[in-house]
Backbone:
């Protein structure tokens, strides 16, 4: 009986909170908020808050066309794998002190699991055979490389900072990091972590493909690049993945740097974390989106490997010397 | 000798080596005429080679129980001539867990590649000679890792270099094959000369060639001559492992050889070099306690990692690209081993094993493409996934593994390497190890990038008109790839089993030099250290996969319920314009994005670096020889100062 | 006077390296490899040399404590090394012939299809 109940509990984690249903609602809602905020900052009225939901359901009702040149199986399976992997990543990210699955992954694993949705999108695009998708996937891959170096530096800095505070030298476990913050306050209050937090915040728009780093989609020049040949339900899932990725990356930011703000009750913490995600999104995604124009791909790369990596490096050096 | 005595497992190491040389002899005795069967021009000779490699693998697998699990070190004197007057006068084989670990890798790769060869080599001339050289190469490498005698190591190095050079030039019509073989021979010969010089310098000092005895004598009595010998031996074995600055040879040789041989050169020859370097630094000279030696190996390893991955990004030939990646992965192994921690050695060996598996798989996939289309030029291929679906899936498994995508095996070992390097950095408070961690992490992403390039340029994208009639490769070739792919997945999903059965015993053998010496009958006061393989990270691939499967299942059910696969028309009606690709209103022409055009945004920022590297790898054999001489000079100076 | 042997051996090895690095003719490269090999052979023989020692040929009855001959092991090693050296020369010359057939030149600076 207990086994059955535990199974049911975990199934609940996967399907409802913090799994599919939570991802679906919060991800799309976050995107809606982002779109509304950008519109208001640009003095437009903007779409209704629930517009992403409408888009999703409308797309689901449309016909799915597989181009004659495409490799059908890869083309159709890629969006599903990408989204499922992203939901699994979301399961590992602790919400304040609460995490659904502890002891299964650390921050290095999460770093690589976050690659899977991007890789799935790239393979799907590649399988479509479209030249626009070819250009798009090349840019997506370069963006991934661009974000990788600063992200690695940030994560190493966090691992070192928490590790030396705990006395173990190193700490890779996300749930350990979350617990540390519950006991000792958010990491962002430590001087060495401020540049790292800033660097991570600047990585968010790159990871999620938001302005000014949306070269991989670039509607105006390469017709949404990777999604050029997608239609109907697969496209809906890609849009959903995109939305959930925004949620995942911002909640990872919250978990790493703004952790420990909460009450200890999972549901309330969920709301608090979501509110924090909204704030982070507003500051680093919507605002940046509203005030910048799209960069060229080589500028994206240069920016991440110089400015953002530099910030992360400062943080790593500070953490190394125990500040 | 009666039969039960002959089947004592202490004889198995020598059987494993001899069966391959015997196979080579039997194949050669069978003559050079092609048989009438067009599907197997070598006839029974191919089966002899296959049986020889299979038997050799069997003998080694039977040794797993006593050596890996039982912790025994097999000391075997040829012809029962052992020690006289305190000196080893016989020729010895010594098999500890480290030797057996590498021998197993080698035997597996050789066996799988032999399966593949039968159907792969059908279009070639002189196929029987191919099997002779094949068995010689396999026997040479296996002899090298099982030998307990430093001069025999040199002889085996020569045998394997010879066979490898001849096999590199085997397809004389292939663009650049002769040239690659000649360059490999020149620099390889300089390496062999360096090894021989080192061996002789050691003999002059200690009057013995036995590894165990040398290991018991050298550490207490280092002088300038032994340091010189160390430098010569290190450089000599570096040429066999193709680590920086000998990586251009690997690129040439792997690229030009038949794919089944590329598997051996990349998965097996490089491993033998790494094995010899481990023997040298941990056993013979026992210098891994020194910070300077750790620095040297980690530096060379990180340089190999980074330089070769960037060189690979600039390639537009499938096999040449894979060749540079081999050395990049060998860089991981060397870095991890150079950390001089138990976890590092275990992680490095794990990665060495994974590299043999996934790189073998990738080379075989490249061979399959070559077999069917006749080219490996990334600029001319495209869209093969529809014609060769199985090869595509197998290639993708290999590509995910090498790029370190969870839950494949490359991730498990790379993840351990990241842990080990960073743990070492924090323990020793050394910025150098920290840098190695960052390089390792970034290299992994660059590896992914170059495999995205291969996937896009070869298997996806648009199919050129000339490859409309391409077929899937024969079953024999797919079987060989399937075995490797299955091993890639299994070793990724059960990292704890792999480490406890294979890599941790081997790492323990690396640390317990004293046992290695005393097993041979020499005195050693070296204690067996207590090792800890603990690491701070957590990664549970099975649980993760379970979660992913549940999530994927739920998602699939939901999307099928929503008629996700309601892909309208059947196949023949696809003349409708809505099934054609979108070209923004332009005339729909063949436009494959791939090859060198991909990742322009990355290369543009690094254009000075790429130009510099392109000019540096000039392809002139004199330049590569010069690099070898400079490396030797630097190694001598470094050893004199650092040891 | 055994020092001269060592000096000559390392001189020959270095001469071999020098030839391989600086000469652009394939045949000269092969000569360089041979010279290098001779250097090593000389080194091996010199290592086993004992002043006044006789050839290590004996029958069981003659072997006493007073038997005095040069170290036999390096001689065996030299034989192996000479055989290997001959193989290297044969193999590389055959490659040179084939290279000349397909490239029409012996200049290493023009035999560089594989680069970068």
Residues:
């Amino acid at each position: 009986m207990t086994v059955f109940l535990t199974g049911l509990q975990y199934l609940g984690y996967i399907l409802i909170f913090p799994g599919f249903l939570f991802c679906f609602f919060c991800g799309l809602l976050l995107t809606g908020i982002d779109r509304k905020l950008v519109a208001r900052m640009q003095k437009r009225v903007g779409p209704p808050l629930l517009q992403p939901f409408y888009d999703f359901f409308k797309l689901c009702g449309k016909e799915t066309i597989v181009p004659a040149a495409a490799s059908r199986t890869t083309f159709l399976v890629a969006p599903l794998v990408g989204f499922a992997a992203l939901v699994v990543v979301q399961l590992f990210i602790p919400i304040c002190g609460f995490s659904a699955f502890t002891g299964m992954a650390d921050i290095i694993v999460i770093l690589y699991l976050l690659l899977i949705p991007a890789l799935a999108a790239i393979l799907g695009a590649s399988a479509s055979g479209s030249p626009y998708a070819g250009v798009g996937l090349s840019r997506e891959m370069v963006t991934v490389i661009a974000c990788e170096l600063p992200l690695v530096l940030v994560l190493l800095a966090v691992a070192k900072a928490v590790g030396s505070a705990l006395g173990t030298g190193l700490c890779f476990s996300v749930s350990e990091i979350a617990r540390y913050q519950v006991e000792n306050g958010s990491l962002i209050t430590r001087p060495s972590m401020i540049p790292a937090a800033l660097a991570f915040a600047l990585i968010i728009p790159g990871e999620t493909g938001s302005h000014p780093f949306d070269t991989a989609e670039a509607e105006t020049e390469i017709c949404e690049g990777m999604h050029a040949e997608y239609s109907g339900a697969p496209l809906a899932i890609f849009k959903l993945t995109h939305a959930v990725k925004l949620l995942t990356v911002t909640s990872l930011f919250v978990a790493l740097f703004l952790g420990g703000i909460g009450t200890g009750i999972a549901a309330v913490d969920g709301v608090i974390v979501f509110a924090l995600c909204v704030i982070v999104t507003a500051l680093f995604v919507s605002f940046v989106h509203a005030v910048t124009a799209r960069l060229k791909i080589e500028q994206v790369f240069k920016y991440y490997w110089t400015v953002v990596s530099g910030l992360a490096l400062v943080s790593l050096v500070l953490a190394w010397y125990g500040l | 000798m009666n039969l039960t005595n002959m089947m004592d497992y202490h004889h198995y190491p020598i059987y494993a080596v001899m069966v391959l040389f015997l196979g080579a002899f039997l194949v050669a005795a069978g003559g050079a005429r092609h048989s009438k069967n067009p599907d197997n021009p070598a006839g029974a000779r191919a089966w002899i080679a296959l049986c020889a490699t299979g038997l050799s693998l069997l003998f080694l697998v039977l040794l797993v129980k006593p050596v890996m699990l039982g912790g025994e070190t097999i000391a075997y004197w040829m012809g029962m001539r052992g020690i006289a007057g305190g000196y080893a006068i016989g020729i010895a084989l010594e098999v500890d867990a480290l030797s057996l670990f590498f021998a197993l890798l080698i035997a597996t790769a050789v066996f799988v590649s032999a399966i593949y060869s039968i159907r792969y080599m059908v279009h070639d001339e002189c196929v029987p000679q191919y099997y002779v050289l094949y068995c010689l190469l396999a026997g040479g490498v296996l002899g090298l890792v099982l030998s307990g005698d430093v001069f025999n190591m040199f002889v085996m190095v020569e045998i394997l270099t010879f066979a490898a050079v001849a096999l590199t030039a085997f397809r004389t019509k292939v663009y650049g094959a002769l040239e690659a073989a000649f360059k490999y021979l020149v620099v390889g010969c300089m390496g062999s000369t360096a090894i021989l010089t080192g061996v002789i310098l050691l003999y002059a000092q200690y009057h013995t060639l036995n590894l165990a005895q040398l290991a018991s004598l050298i550490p207490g009595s280092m002088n300038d001559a032994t340091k010189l010998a160390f430098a010569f031996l290190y450089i000599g074995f570096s040429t066999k492992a193709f680590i920086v600055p000998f990586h251009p040879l690997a690129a040439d040789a792997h690229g030009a050889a038949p794919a089944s041989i590329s598997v051996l050169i990349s998965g097996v020859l490089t491993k033998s070099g790494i094995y010899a370097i481990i023997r040298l630094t941990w056993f013979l000279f026992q210098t891994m306690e020194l910070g300077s030696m750790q620095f040297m190996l980690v530096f060379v390893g990180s340089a190999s990692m980074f330089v070769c991955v960037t060189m690979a990004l600039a390639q537009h030939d499938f096999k040449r690209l894979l060749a540079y990646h081999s050395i990049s992965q060998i860089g991981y192994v060397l870095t991890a081993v150079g950390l001089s921690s138990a976890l590092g050695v275990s992680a490095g060996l794990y990665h060495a094993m994974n590299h043999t598996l996934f790189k073998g798989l990738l080379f075989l996939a490249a061979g399959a493409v070559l077999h069917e289309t006749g080219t490996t030029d990334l600029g001319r291929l495209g869209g093969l996934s529809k014609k060769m679906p199985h090869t595509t899936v197998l290639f993708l498994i290999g590509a995910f593994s090498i790029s370190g995508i969870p839950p494949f095996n490359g991730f498990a070992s790379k993840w351990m390497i990241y842990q080990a390097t960073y743990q070492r950095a924090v323990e020793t408070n050394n910025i150098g190890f920290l840098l190695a961690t960052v390089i390792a992490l970034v290299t992994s992403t660059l590896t992914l990038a170059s495999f995205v390039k291969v996937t896009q340029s070869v298997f996806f994208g648009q199919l050129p008109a000339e490859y409309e009639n391409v077929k899937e490769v024969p079953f024999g070739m797919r079987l060989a790839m399937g075995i490797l792919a299955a091993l890639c997945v299994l070793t990724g999903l059960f990292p704890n089993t792999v480490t406890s059965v294979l890599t941790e015993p081997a790492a323990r053998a690396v640390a317990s030099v004293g046992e290695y010496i005393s097993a041979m009958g020499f005195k050693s006061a070296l204690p067996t250290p207590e090792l800890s393989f603990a690491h701070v990270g957590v990664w549970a691939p099975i649980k993760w996969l379970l979660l992913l499967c549940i999530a994927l299942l739920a998602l699939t059910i939901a999307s099928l319920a929503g008629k996700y696969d309601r892909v309208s028309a059947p196949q023949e009606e696809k003349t409708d314009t809505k099934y054609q690709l979108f070209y923004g209103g332009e005339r729909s022409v063949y436009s494959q994005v791939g090859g060198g055009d991909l990742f322009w945004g990355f290369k543009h920022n690094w254009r000075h670096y790429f130009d510099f590297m392109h000019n540096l790898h000039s392809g002139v054999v004199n330049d590569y020889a010069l690099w070898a001489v400079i490396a030797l000079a630097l190694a001598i100076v470094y050893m004199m100062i650092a040891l | 006077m055994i020092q001269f042997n060592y000096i000559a051996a390392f001189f020959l090895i270095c001469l071999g390296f020098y030839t391989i690095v600086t000469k652009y003719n394939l045949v000269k490269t092969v000569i360089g490899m041979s010279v290098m090999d001779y250097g090593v052979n000389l080194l091996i023989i010199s290592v086993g040399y004992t002043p006044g020692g006789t050839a290590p040929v004996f029958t069981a009855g003659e072997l006493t404590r007073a038997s005095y001959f040069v170290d036999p092991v390096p001689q065996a090693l030299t034989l192996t090394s000479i055989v290997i050296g001959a193989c290297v020369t044969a193999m590389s010359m055959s490659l040179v012939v084939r290279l000349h057939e397909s490239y029409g030149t012996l200049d290493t600076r023009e035999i560089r299809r594989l680069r970068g």
